């Protein structure tokens, strides 16, 4: 249950609380919908955005004080009054943080949806909140803006590269544009090793290194995938090549605290840069991208070209720790709460 808006970092037990209530899964009214046993819940950085005053407009709906949190999840249908679903079906949806959820069934809205998903060989269902879910779709949709430019580019810099979006992007880009030199940054030595092992040509720890210096040495940067904003974006702006492209995906350095201003915005006109921002799943472009994603990505995942890397938190109660981990950097791979057995 969401109980208080944070200022600064979200704290388990302070801004959310865990409560237990009994639900009779045999008799709970479904009102024409379905009863879903939740298997896995995603923990994503943007959840911090949702912890805010309801009157401040943003792309995602704010969490409401006194109500359960919700996010991208996967589950199994236990009972159904909707002819489109049968018990035993696996579903992906935007569900509340509970063990069992009653859902109205077929909704397509990005922050309310529910849709059937297949069981794929060798993959846990939690893959549908990671490489086959929102973070994978984010990397795929955003890269469509860079795909054409990538053909004639030499260098790509990715910040927050060891996260769910960044690791997908590195492996995907290495598959379709092997000529690109990938420069990647993350915050621990283990994450730097991971980045090198999955195809980053240059990997560095942004906490211990002068970002601008590394980019000057290995750049100029033709494409910058910005997951960080703040001082990281500033360092990138100063090292972009003329006609460079910045894909603005996220701004995690500003979600909890102010980590540096963008001081060199003038580089945008000085170097004729383009900036393309986007939100996954929003807009017609996104809808087209998702159709392509379904065709192109599952075969790459099944062939092991894009690998599942999860940081698993076990039990519904661990959702609080999972939510915090993506801001402290504790997660090594996609942060996911494993709620129940498949
Ligand atoms: P993950 O949840 O996998 O990982 C988050 C990582 O961010 C942490 O592990 C930590 O790693 C890093 N981090 C935390 N604070 C900072 C900081 N101040 N500066 C730099 N890195 C920091 O992340 P995702 O891959 O899911 O998300 C990456 C970005 O993409 C986020 O900005 C997110 O908001 C954005 N996003 C945007 C979407 C869109 O539609 N535009 C959709 C999904 C994600 P480390 O140890 O390296 O510091």
UniProtKB/TrEMBL annotation:
| Keywords for the protein's UniProt record, in alphabetical order | Oxidoreductase
In its keyword annotation, does this UniProt entry include Flavoprotein?
Answer: no
Q: Does the keyword section mention Oxidoreductase? A: yes
**InterPro entries xrefs:** ADH-like_C, ADH_N_2, GroES-like_sf, MDR_fam, NAD(P)-bd_dom_sf
Q: Where is the Oxidoreductase N-terminal domain?
A: 27-106
Q: Where is the Alcohol dehydrogenase-like C-terminal domain?
A: 164-288
Which domain of life does this protein belong to? Answer: Eukaryota
Kindly provide the name given to this protein in its UniProt entry: Enoyl reductase (ER) domain-containing protein
In its UniProt entry, the species of origin is given as Somion occarium
């Amino acid at each position: 249950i969401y109980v208080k808006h944070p200022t600064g970092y979200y704290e388990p037990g302070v801004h959310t609380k865990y409560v237990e209530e009994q639900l009779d899964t045999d008799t709970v009214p479904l009102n024409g919908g379905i009863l879903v046993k939740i298997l896995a819940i995603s923990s994503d950085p943007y959840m911090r955005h949702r912890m805010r005053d309801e009157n401040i407009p943003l792309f995602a709906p704010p969490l409401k004080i006194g109500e359960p949190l919700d996010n991208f999840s996967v589950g199994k249908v236990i009972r159904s009054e909707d002819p489109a679903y049968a018990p035993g079906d696996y579903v992906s949806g935007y569900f509340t943080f509970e063990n069992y959820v009653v859902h109205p069934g077929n909704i397509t809205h990005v922050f309310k949806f529910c849709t059937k998903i297949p069981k794929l060989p060798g993959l846990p269902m939690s893959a549908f909140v990671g490489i086959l879910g929102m973070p994978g779709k984010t990397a795929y949709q955003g890269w469509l803006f860079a795909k054409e430019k990538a053909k004639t580019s030499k260098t790509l810099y990715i910040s927050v590269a060891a996260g769910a979006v960044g690791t997908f992007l590195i492996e995907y880009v290495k598959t379709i544009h092997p000529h690109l030199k990938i420069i990647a940054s993350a915050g621990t030595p283990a994450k730097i090793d991971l980045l090198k092992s999955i195809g980053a040509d240059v990997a560095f720890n942004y906490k211990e290194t002068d970002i601008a210096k590394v980019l000057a040495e290995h750049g100029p940067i033709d494409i910058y995938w910005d997951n960080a904003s703040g001082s990281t974006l500033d360092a990138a702006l100063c090292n972009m090549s003329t006609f460079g492209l910045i894909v603005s995906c996220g701004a995690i350095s500003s979600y909890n605290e102010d980590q540096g201003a963008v001081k060199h915005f003038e580089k945008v006109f000085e170097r004729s840069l383009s900036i393309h921002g986007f939100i996954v799943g929003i807009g017609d472009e996104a809808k087209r991208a998702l159709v392509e994603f379904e065709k192109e990505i599952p075969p790459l995942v099944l062939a092991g070209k894009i690998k599942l890397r999860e940081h698993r938190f076990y039990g519904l109660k661990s959702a609080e720790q999972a939510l915090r981990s993506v801001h402290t950097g504790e997660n090594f791979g996609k942060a996911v709460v494993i709620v129940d057995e498949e």
